[in-house]
Amino acid sequence: MSTTTEAAPAKERTRSLYRGDPGMWSWVLHRITGVLTFFFLFVHVLDTALVRVNPDTYDSVIETYKNPIVGLMEIALVAAVLYHALNGVRVMLVDFWAKGPQYQRLMLWVILAIWFLVMIPGAGRIFYNMFAGH
């Protein structure tokens, strides 16, 4: 008795347009950095409002910000705001420049290079302020 087994036809893998593409990660990072910036601004408005309520409380809150953990958070904030701003310019160019979609991938790499070049001295300055006591 012989049996023949036929292999099931291979399913063609469907892939969405952005799965794993740098454009998808750019989109995700843009959303995350926008939300982080919003929450920073919300906290900043609240802690600044303490000046009118109780200046001593404001001073004590500001004093708690003078530690290395908050310094690292400042570096993350600068990184988020800088990326969000640069990518926002790229998104506007893609939307409003006729050749924008054609060059959108190149523009992504250019803004990442600019981000990196600006973040190095920015992070260096924040580290200097953290450890030099300014």
Could you describe the 3D structure shown?
- The chain has four helices and no strands.
- With 134 residues, it is an all-alpha fold.
- The mean pLDDT is 88.
- α1 runs antiparallel to α2 (55-64) and α1 (22-53) crosses α3 (68-96).
- The protein has helices at 22-53, 55-64, 68-96, 100-132.
- The radius of gyration is 24 Å and the shape is elongated.
Secondary structure: elements and pairs:
Elements (H helix, E strand, L loop, with lengths): L21 H32 L1 H10 L3 H29 L3 H33 L2
Provide the helix percentage.
Answer: over 70%
Mean pLDDT: 88
Give the DSSP E fraction (strand runs of 2 or more residues): under 5%
Structural classification: mainly alpha
Beginning-to-end CA distance, first to last residue: 88 Å
Number of helices: 4
Number of strands: 0
By oligomeric state, this entry counts as single chain
Spell out the helices and strands N to C. HHHH
Radius of gyration: 24 Å
Question: Major sheet: size, sense and barrel closure?
Answer: none
Sequence stretches where pLDDT stays below 50 over 5 or more residues: none
3D shape: elongated
Give descriptors for this structure.
mainly alpha
Summarize the structure.
This protein has 134 residues and is mainly α. It contains 4 helices and no strands.
